[in-house]
Amino acid sequence: MSNPVSDLVLGFQGLVADVPDLVQPLIVALAGAVPFIEGEGAAAIGIIGGIPPVVAALAGAVGNLLCVAVVVLVTSRVRTAVTTRRGGGVQPVSARREKFEKAYHRYGTPGVSLLGPLLLPTQFTAAALTSTGVPPLRVLAWQAAAIALWTTVITVLALGLIRFAA
After folding, report:
1. Which sequence ranges are marked TM in the entry (predicted)?
2. Which has the closest alpha carbon to 125: 78, 42, 84, 64?
3. Do 49 and 24 touch, CB atoms closer than 8 A?
4. φ, ψ for residue 120, nearest 5 deg
5. Residues 6+ apart with CB under 8 A from 37
6. What per-residue confidence (pLDDT) applies to 1?
7. Which of 11, 39, 47, 102 is deepest in the core (most CB within 10 A)?
8. What DSSP element (H or E) covers 25?
């Protein structure tokens, strides 16, 4: 049985190999916008595809951040519309939402943003933060930091593995 994420990764790797060099970073950026692949996975796809590591990392991170920015802006507008319509009233809280809010109160926006990619895609974390009322610019700033951190870490590890295997 195939895994949809690994199928996507293989598809992006094949696409990177099949397009002209100038287009390859755009494919990596597109891969970075996909949840569960993200900037770090996209950077690894680009490096394996022969793109210079810095270019692959930047392309993956930019693709991931652009997608997260769209999610934050849409979630912020939806939250504003819902709270305006309800008059800011109290909403029932699901078990999943309660768990997220507990983590948020314990770690704050920085902690949830930086540790979130270990459990969830940045798009999901950004939407959850924004929907709880964290200002969109604060969410974007911390998500950008998380994307830069994790993309850099995975890029360095991928380079180390490639050099070790060579």
Report:
1. 54-76, 107-129, 141-162
2. 64
3. yes
4. -135, 155
5. 5, 8, 9, 12, 31, 45
6. 61
7. 39
8. helix 24-32
